[in-house]
Amino acid sequence: MISFENVGLRYGSGTEVLHDISFNLEPQSFQFLTGPSGAGKTTLLKLILMSLRPTRGLIQLFGKETTSLTQDEITSFRRRIGVVFQDFRLLDHLTTYQNVALPLFVQGKDESSFRAEVVELLRWVGLGERVNAFPPILSGGEKQRAAIARALIGQPEVLIADEPTGNVDPSLARRLLRLFIELHKSGTSIIIATHDLGLMDQFGFARRLVLGEGRLQVYE
User: How distant, in Å, are the alpha carbons of 34, 45, 110 from that of 160?
Assistant: First the structure.
């Protein structure tokens, strides 16, 4: 689904921040992306999302080289990827329901075709009583779950989560990861960026992609 081959990235004329990154993301796989702060985890995720372009090397997404994609193709491919950002990116003037349904509204879908599905997903992530609540009154954990629901509503082939448990307590962190595991069982490939080694140890089946000094090591 995703392939990096000797990918390097530098900003402007500076030194490379990522060097010779190579890995393959298989369908229905589960992996953690880890490394110290500043190692380049978020930068690597941006390359997958095509919000950054590599300085050198080859990136293929869903079988196509990303440098050859048209803007319409990039938009189409991004719809196949769900993303959970560190800062949630919920819109304060929209309800929880509206935030989660936003990707479907943007696609021009008729609300009658997805309303029941959005409400059921909100129940599944424990927000059934917060459907009409606005983000400013949600707790950090509730905002995180709303962001996860928004990433899932389009039934993505790949889910990318950047430090999804960084703003919640350990109990809720485990609950969120169980949600990811259920999604993985349904066929979605998962990439979770985290620095929480203890949390990763609880899910020994997952592959680890470890970034350090701009280089990637893969541990099966």
Answer: 13, 8, 27
Confirm whether pTM is higher than 0.90: no
d(CA 49, CA 66): 10
What is the chain's pLDDT, residue by residue, as a tens digit (220 residues)?
Answer: 899 999 999 998 888 999 999 999 999 999 999 998 888 888 999 999 999 999 999 999 999 999 888 889 998 898 899 998 878 899 999 999 999 999 999 888 999 999 999 999 999 888 999 999 999 999 988 998 899 899 989 889 999 988 887 767 777 777 777 788 888 888 999 999 988 777 788 777 889 999 998 999 998 8
